[in-house]
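thought: fold this chain, then report.
action: predict
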Amino acid sequence: MKKPSSNKSLHKAKDIKNDEFYTRFDDIQAELNFYKDQFKGKVIYCNCDDPAESAFIDFFKLNFDYLGIKKLIGTRYQKSNLFLFADPARRNGYRLEITAKNKDDKKPVKINLKGDGDFRSPECIELLEEADIVITNPPFSLFREYVAQLMKYNKKFLIIGNDNAIKYKGIFELIKENKVWLGYTRAKEFYRPDGSTQKFGNVGWYTNLDVKKRHEELFLYKTYKDNKKDYPKYDNYDAIEVSRIKNIPMDYEGSMGVPITFLNKHNPGQFDIIDLLNRYTLLDTQKTNEDVRARHSHTCNINGKAVYSRIVIKRKK
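observation:
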């Protein structure tokens, strides 16, 4: 039997450490307060949380009756690769369940899991199938895989993720198809396992729960026909550049490239999302017979000068 590489194990341990960011209670409360009516009578599952440490668990325990929750489930992932040479029993995770019957217990019962509590494990998937809504801060490095699992099991969710995930293949398609969208607030500071804090400027919430701002129309006042010089076209993509959301023209029927922050104001009844531009078109909506590399090499350039990533949108007719 091949002996596991110690360097490989250390790299895995480092990856897990770099994924451990504990969400602050205040940030959880600031976002979850918007969804109060959607939690009533639901089974809530926090499947990337240590029930002893998680502010998500604390929030739902404190607000169990106020929110009218049916059941709260939390599962702990035991970092088994950090205990390669320890007693195998220490590699098991555990779950905690809170219902109306035991919600007032000072120490709710912890139930040992057979495995390590990984959200991909069969027993955690079984709990996922029971859940109505999944709410947690999943590992950033597994975000794409994590969301894919939620979609596979057709789950409602509210999760924290990096803004860069918007541009991931497999995530942007869900945003385009109105299967995933952004929440209300930002999470700017997290606790680390060693007690320190780390600040981010690019972390927010992803969800498929109802968000009221998605039903509000963006007020438009500028016109394309009177300001064409303000809307240049991209070198290698048939769309005009709109550098600021407030400058989206009210009379342009074609494709428009807008800042990614547009997603915070997107109303699917007002606009269709078409594509995402960086130095290539993520969805390749404009197929030609040219070489792929040549076709995409300057997609987000204007007169040879690169611009920031853009969401391509069209007005609803």
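thought: worth noting. The mean pLDDT is 85.
final: tokens above.
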